[in-house]
């Protein structure tokens, strides 16, 4: 609170029994309320005590709970007091306040955020006395009176019908036929080509900006670049394919360009028999080969001077290898083994190796290795110290590996 002291005792800024009265500054600001009656101060002075407004409101909240301060809000006014029947009158009021209209017209309206509101005019022509009050929560304006009037709606002036002036019959303009673009080019894969690599894209040429559409065994769309080239990603593994491409310019499509190509597996390899090798009759190795395509079917054909060409058999690649047995009773002579593989319904080219079968005891053929007399070494006619010379160390290892392979193959036949 605060205390007010007046040196001029003739000023009655409060009266006895005025406790709770408002304290207003000379500029109209509310400061608080009277807390104590005036009383004598120092000689020639008069004093009073006041509660400041924030403190007084805190006391109200503590003792009475939530509250709302009632404010003196502006009265509504009519801004459009004359209008045609069955239209609307217009006015202003405090923003978002509810306006009540009573008297000759009973209505309610809500002012918008700018304070504008409207209410309906009667359907008859006349003058109407009304009273308006604005409410905004607990805040209520003073009630004001107004008179509004309605008039007949203006009748529309008929519009004269203009006299039509005959128009000349226009000469029909022939619509030009759209120009059909040429078929696009396909640069890869080439037509009738065979490749052992998976085709990951179809590429070609066309008009810059044209839309390319693939059909057939590959689908996709793309736009020809400014350099006149295009590419559509694909995933084409082993198989035979036919792919068409069409280009469209401004909605007009060309004829299709077609290419056919094959994605074939590579040829398998033949490890044994070795090309140019000579083997003793009855001591032949199996046909063993390699391929990176697990699951591929390998076909092996034997051609020779003693027998006509015949299919030895087929094998499935497993773990990167395949095996087909040679007949153990091949007669002496020169033979060629050919092998190809099939994957995805497509067959590779053939690979071949030529070898010779010599009669037993004729010399020149590879003979089975006798049972070794010393552990770890085969009898070769050389003593132990000179069996593996440094210069031939690598060859000795390879020879032992080859002998082991032959022994394994013969044990399988047995």
Describe this structure in words.
- Strand 17 and strand 18 form a beta hairpin.
- The protein has four domains: 63 residues, no CATH class; 75 residues, Sandwich (Immunoglobulin-like); 79 residues, Immunoglobulin-like (Sandwich), CATH 2.60.40; 116 residues, Sandwich (Immunoglobulin-like), CATH 2.60.40.
- The C terminus is likely disordered.
- It is mainly β.
- The strands form seven sheets. Strands 6, 8, 9, 11, 12 and 13 form a six-stranded mixed β-sheet that branches.
- The N and C termini lie far apart (122 Å).
Write the layout of secondary structure elements.
Elements: E1 2-6, E2 22-24, E3 30-40, E4 46-52, H1 53-64, E5 77-80, E6 82-84, E7 88-92, E8 98-103, E9 107-110, E10 116-120, E11 126-136, E12 139-140, E13 144-151, E14 185-188, E15 193-195, E16 199-205, E17 211-216, E18 220-223, E19 229-236, E20 239-249, E21 252-253, E22 257-263, E23 269-272, E24 278-280, E25 287-290, E26 297-304, E27 310-316, E28 321-324, E29 333-343, E30 346-347, E31 351-358, H2 393-413
Parallel strand pairs: 6-13, 15-22, 24-31
Antiparallel strand pairs: 1-4, 2-3, 3-4, 5-7, 7-10, 8-9, 8-11, 11-12, 11-13, 14-16, 16-19, 17-18, 17-20, 20-21, 20-22, 23-25, 25-28, 26-27, 26-29, 29-30, 29-31
